[in-house]
Every structure is written in structure tokens, then in C-alpha cells.
Design goal:
The protein is mainly alpha-helical. It is built from six helices and no strands. The longest helix has 22 residues, at 24-45. It is flat and about 50 Å long.
Amino acid sequence: MAGIEFVLAEIVGVAYWKVAIAALIPAILYFLSIYLMVHFEARKLGLRAIPREERPRLGRTLREGGHLLLPIAFVFYLLSDGYSVGFAATWGIGAVFALSFVFVFASALNPSTFTVL
């Protein structure tokens, strides 16, 4: 949904945050309806929750992949600082690319990830 907000803010010529605030209630209703549909379908099919001991730990997940949230925070910072949507998106893509080389996790880019089909 955030992609639509970027385009709308650019076309209308208002700040991204005004569009985001206006879209907050419809977004909440949308995600609530998706949650309820999945919940009731799972109950109808008799699906059970994953046992607590089999669920991934939040701390470990953030240690291994939390760096991927940094470009999102960077884009929001640029938007809140008044930069255009295109500028923020371009630098956000650059931040993802740069971080993928810096962090040596599963998301790291190296020459072996670039293969020719």
C-alpha cells in the first residue's frame, strides 16, 4: 500500500505523510479483514498454531536480518525531511545494495550471486 501512497503524493503534490495519515484507517481495515479471513479459514480447516518452542525467536531473527530494516528507516527519514519520493526511493535502493555487501549474512551479495542464465 505504501507504493500507492508514494505515487499519490507525487501526483497530487502533497507531503507523503499527509497521504499516509489519510490512508491509515483504510489500511487498518484492510489488514484486519485479511487477518480475519485467514483466521476463520484456518479454523474451518482445523489448522492449529505452531507450538511456541518451534516458532522463530524475535531476538535471533533481528540479529540475523534486522539490518534489512535500516533502508526502510532511511527512506522514511528522507521523506520526513522533505525530499521527493523519487529521491528517497533511489537512495533507499542504494542503501539496500550497499548493506547487502556490508553484512555477511544470508542476504550478502558476492560475485557468486551474480550468475548468467
